[in-house]
Amino acid sequence: MVTCNNISLDQKDIAIETRDLNIYYGSKHAIKNLSMQIKKLDITAFIGPSGCGKSTYLRALNRMNDLIPITKTTGKILFDGININDKNVDLATIRQKIGMVWQKPNPFNKSIYENIVFALKYYGIRQKQILDEIVEDSLRKVALWDEVKDRLHKSALALSGGQQQRLCIARAIATKPEILLLDEPTSALDPISSGKIEELLFELKQDYTIIIVTHNMQQAGRISSYTAFFLLGDLIEYDETNVIFTNPVVDKTNDYIMGRFG
Amino acid sequence: MVSRHYFDLELESLHQDLVEMGSKVQESIDNAINALKNQDVELSRQVFKNDDIIDELEHKIERKCINLIARQQPLAKDLRSISTALKIITDMERIADHSADICELTIKMADQKYIKPLIDIPKMAEAAKKMVNNAIHAYVTQNVELAEKVCADDDIVDDYFVKVVDELRELIRENPDVVYQATNFILVAKYLERMGDHATNISEWVIYNVTGVHKDLNHDDLTKIKVNK
Lengths: 262, 229
Ligand SMILES: Nc1ncnc2c1ncn2[C@@H]1O[C@H](COP(=O)(O)OP(=O)(O)O)[C@@H](O)[C@H]1O
Ligand SMILES: [Mg+2]
What we know:
Helix content of chain B: over 70%
Structural class of chain A: alpha/beta
Bound molecules: adenosine-5'-diphosphate, magnesium ion
CATH architecture of chain A: 3-Layer(aba) Sandwich
Radius of gyration of chain B: 19 Å
Order of helices and strands of chain A: EEEEHEEHEHHHHEHEHEEHH
CATH class of chain A: Alpha Beta
Order of helices and strands of chain B: HHHHHH
Shape of chain B: globular
Oligomer: heterodimer
Strand order of the largest sheet of chain A: 1-11-10-4-9-8-7
Structural class of chain B: mainly alpha
Number of strands of chain B: 0
Largest sheet of chain A: 7 strands, mixed
Shape of chain A: globular
Largest interface: A-B, 16 and 14 residues
Radius of gyration of chain A: 18 Å
Strand content of chain B: under 5%
CATH topology of chain B: Methane Monooxygenase Hydroxylase, Chain G, domain 1
Strand content of chain A: 25-35%
Distance between the termini of chain B: 65 Å
CATH superfamily of chain B: Phosphate transport system protein phou homolog 2, domain 2
Helix content of chain A: 25-40%
Number of helices of chain A: 10
């Protein structure tokens, strides 16, 4: 298998890193010996045909695969100087520091306000003034505040799909994470709402490391600085997005980028 | 909807690079002409160095344009802006090359007393430089009127060219000993004339960028060229 990983970062620039990560679903080897470093405060995109392991790898980064009983994960996931693929780590802390936004907007069946403070209350924050501040700040960061400030206590489910997804991002950043994982966050949205999310991610990268799985290659081109191309559980090519989109080294990457795959 | 905001930032930075390249090109013309007038070898060499920087800038801008096309898939006006940038950097780079060409001749003649005081060539250089400055300014401000003026001003430079070449031919006729320098000065005039053509090209692309129509305003009507008796 020809592969090419050209991204080797200074320690201080690495938000998270995996070394020889293998993930199995029962006997199915879904991620194969994957080593890669993710740049801090920037956007990295994972692309590749459906079923190649993008979501599996992404979920590993905040231990969400633990929720699927048949998974086994070996190798190292280095975050903040520790291997978080370890029995002893506190999963609540990991998921507070590494937030996840899913493909389909999935707000809780609660008010907009409650959606955002839900996790905060879980982490023990009770003072109304602090909660209010975080709600406003998070909603402003996702450019939703002006649209919803008059109906904070109405159901989140009444929002449009695009607004719901921005609410989910607000919910994820309310706990002040370092990394945001997004799994095809715009694939259920119309083009205008998708554009707003892209715009938003571009703003958020000033404060958060963003990793986005997308089946929309153009989206990866538009917003990411680094792109990783996955195929059948292998990291085929990983480089700056400029390189991946104009001059990839591996033929398979080239074919995929040109839309001549399969 | 594409991420306008991001794309606009990238266009803005492309724009800045073009302005930087433009000012380096203007500097190169100035230096080339001063070096020629003052027979200044040191300044000529500086123009060569400057030329390397301009080449690097050209490549950097080219890269940016290609990355933008690959990643943002620009359309309509955005696509025109980027193709315009790609076209005009070639013309800018050529202008700087001609400055370097002039400096090469300056160095070759540096130890010789000039056969005549330079009068029309500096004026011609001034006119060519003004065209280049205006062309770059027209690009920066997307000013069609100014771009059209540049195209019209090409006649001024062309007229100087004919005048300078006629005079130098006359000098050669009178005294064949001057042939080396005189032919060099004819080359200088030709380089300046080409600079005017490149400035015209840039202006045509500015007009295209704004209006979407590319008119060839550059070339004389070749059908009118007659046999010299
Ligand atoms: N919960 C699961 N149980 C068993 N196999 C799974 C499960 N989730 C994913 N897989 C398999 O793992 C491989 C990678 O899937 P996935 O990570 O979802 O790919 P992608 O996100 O790139 O489309 C696929 O072959 C898929 O069938
Ligand atoms: Mg997936």
